[in-house]
Amino acid sequence: MQGFSHLDEQGKAAMVDVSDKAVTARRAVATGRIHMHVDTLRAVKEQNLKKGDVLAVARIAGIQGAKKCSDLIPLCHPLALSKVDIQFRFEDSAIVVTCECKLKGQTGVEMEALTGVNVALLTIYDMCKALDKSMHFEGVTLLEKTGGRGDG
To answer: Exactly one of 17, 53, 85, 126 is catalytic; which is it?
Structure first.
């Protein structure tokens, strides 16, 4: 089946062979946001939750999520990431999470960046759910991908 790199000639799921691809510097940046009540946002900002520092825990969780991407998504290659950076930005009623992943390798890191964002968002949700049942995610997307043939 042409056009689907994760299928073999018989249409069965297969891991893409990247052994002939050049080792290049690769980078991906993904983002997403979690909407919440203003009171919940204030509690996160002021580190006033019984579960602790929400953003510190979410940062570590996002980094760990990016590192474990191939354990979660069956056909992803396990990658030796050289950098995972999780950043947070407050909006009026949301927290924006951004994850940057880098490596020198034979395949891209966009799935790792997207996984890092999602795990950080899920961690924020988990730590705040007792306070706010109305939280929801929005806009999880890949912002940038560089390196390799599909640069852009």
So the answer is: 126
Query: From CA 132, how far away is CA 88, in angstroms rounded?
Result: 19
Please tell me the predicted confidence (pLDDT) of residue 10: 74
Is 126 annotated as catalytic? yes
The amino acid at residue 141 is T
Cβ atoms within 10 Å of 144's Cβ, excluding its own: 13
Per-residue model confidence as pLDDT tens digits over 22-46:
899 999 999 999 999 999 999 999 9
Q: Cα(151)–Cα(112) distance, rounded to whole angstroms? A: 16
> Do the Cβ atoms of 82 and 101 come closer than 8 Å?
no
Fold (CATH) for 24-145: Alpha-Beta Plaits (3.30.70)
| Tokens 């995972």 sit on residue | 84
- List the domain boundaries for the chain: 24-145
Per-residue DSSP letter, 93: S
Q: Is 109 within 8 Å of 26 (Cβ atoms)?
A: yes
